[in-house]
Amino acid sequence: MNLLTNFKKSKYYGDNDSYVTFDRKELGIILKVYGTMVAAGEWRDYGISMLKDVSIFSIYKHSSECPIYMIEKKPRYSKKQGMYSVISLDGRILKRGHDLSKVVKIFNPKLLRVVK
After folding, report:
1. Are strands 93-97 and 69-73 parallel, antiparallel or unpaired?
2. What is the largest CA-CA distance in the chain?
3. What is the pTM assigned to this prediction?
4. Tens of pLDDT along 35-88?
5. DSSP state of 61
6. Is residue 56 helix, strand or coil?
């Protein structure tokens, strides 16, 4: 049994409740970028939140801090600005769109550089 099956059988999961989740393809795109940045020494930890109206992939520099970036999936914006967005630590939306692979290109190492 996997974790999601156990969760659905628990008392916290109602019959009429539906949660927004990242599918396998979306997680593959996100984890590819995440692995690249971990190998570069920029990121250390991540967390995934699945809620009723949004699913969030949070990225941490240190595990005890606030997330430095959040990748959100909000299906209710799919016909408007796009359901995927990258949000920074201060709450600014850095990129939003309909295609996740184009949205996560903001994490291109050439675009993220340390200012001294």
Report:
1. unpaired
2. 53
3. 0.75
4. 888 888 888 888 888 888 889 999 988 767 788 889 998 888 878 888 899 998
5. S
6. strand
